[in-house]
Every structure is written in C-alpha cells, then in structure tokens.
C-alpha cells in the first residue's frame, strides 16, 4: 500500500511547479505566511488557490509534517531547528527566523544535505531508504508499465486516478488491475469495473446488471469498454470516493465472483 501512495505523492509533487507555478518549497512558505490557525483553514485557503480538495488536503498534511513528503520520503531529517509549520509568519507578513531557517532547510533538501544552522550541529547526509528490487511488480498490478502509460492520459487527474485505484484494491483485495491505453480494468477472473482516464475527468463504470441507478451512478457508456459497464460515475474530486460508492464496487466484484 505504501508503495502506491508513494508513487501517488511523487507524481503530485513532480507536477506541482508546472501545474501551479510554485514548487513544494514555495507552497510551504506561502502556507506559513498565511498564519492560519487550523488545518481546515489551510485546506480552505488552498482550495481558493485552485487546488482540488484531495491535493489541498495532501499539501496541508505535508505542511503539518514539517514540509516533508508523507509517503515519498526519499530522505530522513535527523535533526533540525523549529520548522515554519510550528512558527508561522509574523503579524507584519515577514517570515520569522525559524520559518526562514526552514526555507533554507527545504532548499538544502534538494542536494541531500541538512545543516545545524544556528545550533552549530555538523552537516549530516540524508540516508536513502531501501528501494524495491528492479523489475519488482506490485501485487495485483498485471503490467506496471502499461498502468503508468495509461496514467499519463489523466494528466492533472493522475493523483486522483491512483487514489481511486488504491481504494478499489483496498475494497476488493484480490482484484487484478490491468491497463490498456486510457482504460484501467479491475478483475476477479472476469472484469467487474473499468476506469476511463482523461484530462477532463475520470469515469468509473461498474457491471451491476439490472440494479437501479442512484446518486452515485447513472446510465452511461465507457469508451472502449463493453456495454455491460453501464453504471457510470464521473469523478473529479477525491471526496466523491465515498464508502457508499465503494460499496457499489464491492457489489459488482461479488457478482463477478459468484457468476
């Protein structure tokens, strides 16, 4: 699970500068400068900057983690002075000394080093965590390269697509995930769900037979998929991936298993 979330996070951070005009370091400074008292306030502010809820929430979590990625760790900070997250900007808008030191620490992170700053501690190299074996295939992923290629079709929705895939794999642990072009397929022997990827939206289609439509799924078609995937949900935000929606996914999987 952590490997998938790490990939989700790396993809998000890698595209951050191109998508928003600011990289992670710059967003951490911008958040600190707002001097917002609560985590939800930070998320709301980021939403007003144009972020989808899932991305705003992820950035807030990184900010609350002293500016360090949650899953795509890559480096481990062994010691350091108070962070900008703990010491937000001063009332006049200037960045406080601890926050400024955090800016320098974040910049140093790009070269893999961290210094003691005012503490006088010696420089310490950040240690890389163990990496998976070359060619290792995540459990349940039939062809990781094909899945990565499909993800490119989602563009800004890549983090959401990875989130949807992970939640479905959590809901149906023995599912197999395949991909071809812009279509991701979820199977237990036979496919029970498909996820169509595009730069405009994600479309989740389920094979629910004659089950009535509801608030989550309406009648529709998935390009490139059989007509039986007629229960379609259009996804643009992680908040749409509710327990109720995942319950429908489980029903489709159980029908596929019993059929």
List keywords for this structure.
259 residues; alpha+beta; Aspartate Aminotransferase, domain 1; 2 domains; 6-stranded antiparallel sheet; two-stranded antiparallel sheet; 9 helices; 14% strand
How would you sum up this structure in a few lines?
The protein has helices at residues 2-14, 16-20, 24-34, 39-48, 53-64, 97-109, 144-152, 158-171, 243-258; strands at residues 113-114, 124-125, 176-180, 183-188, 190-197, 202-206, 218-219, 231-235.
What does this structure look like?
The protein is built from nine helices and eight strands. By secondary structure, it is of the alpha+beta class. The longest helix has 16 residues, at 243-258. The two termini are 29 Å apart.
Helix-strand layout with pairing:
Blueprint: H1 2-14, H2 16-20, H3 24-34, H4 39-48, H5 53-64, H6 97-109, E1 113-114, E2 124-125, H7 144-152, H8 158-171, E3 176-180, E4 183-188, E5 190-197, E6 202-206, E7 218-219, E8 231-235, H9 243-258
Antiparallel strand pairs: 1-2, 3-4, 4-5, 5-6, 6-8, 7-8
């Amino acid at each position: 699970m952590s490997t998938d979330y790490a990939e989700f996070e790396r993809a998000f951070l890698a595209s951050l500068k191109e998508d928003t005009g600011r990289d992670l370091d710059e967003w951490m400074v911008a958040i600190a400068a707002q001097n917002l008292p609560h985590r939800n306030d930070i998320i709301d502010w980021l939403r007003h900057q144009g972020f989808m809820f899932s991305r705003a929430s992820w950035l807030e979590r990184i900010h609350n983690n002293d500016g360090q990625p949650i899953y795509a760790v890559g480096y481990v900070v062994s010691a350091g002075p108070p962070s900008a997250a703990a010491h937000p900007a001063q009332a006049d808008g200037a960045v406080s000394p601890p926050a400024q030191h955090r800016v320098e620490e974040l910049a140093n992170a790009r070269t893999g080093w961290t210094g003691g700053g005012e503490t006088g501690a010696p420089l310490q190299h950040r240690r890389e965590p163990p990496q998976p074996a070359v060619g290792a295939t995540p459990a349940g992923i039939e062809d990781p390269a094909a899945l990565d290629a499909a993800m490119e079709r989602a563009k800004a929705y890549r983090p959401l697509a990875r989130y949807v895939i992970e939640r479905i794999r959590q809901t149906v642990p023995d599912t197999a995930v395949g991909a071809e072009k812009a279509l991701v397929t979820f199977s237990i022997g036979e496919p029970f769900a498909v996820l169509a990827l595009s730069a405009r939206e994600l479309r989740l289609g389920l094979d629910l037979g004659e089950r009535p439509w509801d608030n989550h799924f309406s009648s529709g078609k998935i390009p490139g998929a059989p007509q039986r995937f007629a229960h379609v949900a259009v996804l643009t935000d992680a908040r749409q991936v509710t327990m109720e929606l995942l319950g429908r996914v489980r029903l489709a999987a159980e029908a596929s298993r019993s059929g």
